């Protein structure tokens, strides 16, 4: 009979507790306590702080961790490094690296084992992996790193997508220990063509680094494959670097972060990617009178709104301001759209009983 899984842990349950030095070695010493929700840091020497600064690191702000060794062969300590993205005084997030010195044992091997134990538990918490009840905690608990295919539109937004990818996305993915290949798209529908011929068994997910348009290409490419029923199960992600980042805003809200724009929104979505969570995504199938079919994940527009979006492509270098300019120009040349709307009326048997508004 298979053993029962361990019961869920309370948010304040201490998982690990220990004393660490700092880097450099002559700095203060700290008591670290790891819970399912946060890393608690208390300075012990030279004297405890009455009001510690940075003493609580929520795991939602942690991208990853690692263990390091000193370049000096005489140093028997091992180092436990945590990468965090807290809010600064002006509200924006910034990268902060916290490095702790494991030096409680006399040999490097023992100190490394302790540092690795902390790194393993923290990684399991970040990725939602179960921890053993009473078993030994080693790096063997961790599965192989997820393999991601990153698709970057270098012309996304105001042409800053590639720069943001290099400065923010790639460092965070490396900190999280994720494996990835990166491809820059070269033309419209390039991403759609790539995923149509992709061997999906080689990847654990496809992540777009651009706006909503690139993910639209990826989803339609997956659903245009002969094996679309299996292909559509492939996890997809979005890291917002485009002019329109509506889906990323919804992901940001669903992930529990406060409303954000620009680089902060990108960092929030990258933190969620590092944790590896998945949730279902609703799609809408649209068949045109010509017989062509496409799939949407946000909305479907026709008429004035569509013209604004299409004509704004000429002003892509302006970023999100291109939509405002295109709207003004479309209003100046406003014309009538003629069409027919057909729908099937809802029946009582097809709709569940819903509460009525007062």
Q: Share of helix among residues?
A: 25-40%
Structural domains: how many: 3
Radius of gyration: 25 Å
The major pleated sheet works out as:
7 strands, antiparallel
H/E element order: EEEEEEEHEHEHEHHEHHEEHH
Number of helices: 9
The oligomeric status of these chains comes to single chain
What's the total count of β strands?
13
- Tell me the distance between the termini: 53 Å
Mean pLDDT: 86
CATH topology of the largest domain: Rossmann fold
Content of β-strand: 15-25%
What does it look like?
A hairpin with a 5-residue loop joins β12 (284-287) and β13. The chain is of the alpha+beta class. The protein is elongated. The strands form three sheets. Strands 4-3-2-1-7-6-5 form a seven-stranded antiparallel β-sheet. Strands 9-8-10-11 form a four-stranded parallel β-sheet, with helices on both faces. The protein has a two-stranded antiparallel ribbon with strand order 12-13. It folds into three domains: 16-45 and 52-141, PH-domain like (Roll), CATH 2.30.29.30; 147-282, Rossmann fold; 287-332, no CATH class. The longest helix is centred in the first third of the chain and has 20 residues, at 108-127. The protein contains nine helices and 13 strands.
């Amino acid at each position: 009979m298979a053993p029962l899984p361990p019961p869920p842990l309370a948010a304040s349950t201490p998982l690990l507790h220990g004393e660490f030095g700092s880097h450099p070695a002559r700095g203060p010493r700290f008591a670290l306590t790891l819970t399912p929700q946060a890393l608690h840091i208390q300075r012990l020497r030279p004297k405890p702080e009455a009001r510690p600064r940075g003493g609580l690191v929520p795991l939602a702000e942690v991208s990853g961790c690692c263990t390091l060794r000193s370049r000096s062969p005489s140093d028997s300590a091992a180092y436990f490094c945590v990468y965090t993205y807290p809010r600064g005084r002006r509200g924006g997030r910034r990268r902060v690296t916290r490095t702790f010195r494991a030096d409680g044992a006399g040999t490097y091997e023992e100190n490394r084992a302790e540092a690795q134990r902390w790194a393993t538990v923290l990684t399991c918490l970040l990725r939602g992996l179960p921890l053993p009840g009473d078993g030994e905690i080693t790096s063997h608990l961790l599965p192989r790193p997820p393999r991601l295919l990153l698709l970057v539109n270098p012309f996304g937004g105001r042409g800053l997508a590639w720069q943001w990818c290099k400065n923010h996305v790639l460092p965070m993915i490396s900190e999280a220990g994720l494996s990835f290949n990166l491809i820059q798209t070269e033309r419209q529908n390039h991403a759609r063509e790539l995923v149509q011929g992709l061997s999906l068994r080689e990847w654990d997910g496809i992540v777009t680094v651009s706006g909503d348009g690139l993910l639209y290409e990826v989803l339609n490419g997956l659903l245009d494959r002969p094996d679309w029923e299996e292909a559509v199960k492939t996890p997809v992600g979005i890291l917002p670097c485009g002019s329109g980042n509506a889906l990323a805003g919804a992901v940001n809200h669903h992930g529990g972060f406060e409303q954000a724009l620009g680089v902060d929104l990108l960092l929030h979505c990258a933190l969620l990617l590092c944790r590896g969570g998945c949730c279902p995504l609703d799609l809408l199938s649209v068949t045109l009178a010509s017989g062509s079919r496409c799939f949407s994940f946000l909305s479907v527009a026709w008429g004035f709104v569509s013209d604004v979006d299409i004509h704004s492509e000429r002003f892509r270098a302006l970023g999100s301001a291109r939509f405002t300019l295109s709207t003004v120009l479309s209003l100046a040349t406003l014309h009538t759209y003629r069409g027919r709307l057909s729908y099937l009326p809802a029946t009582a048997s097809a709709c569940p009983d819903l509460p009525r508004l007062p």
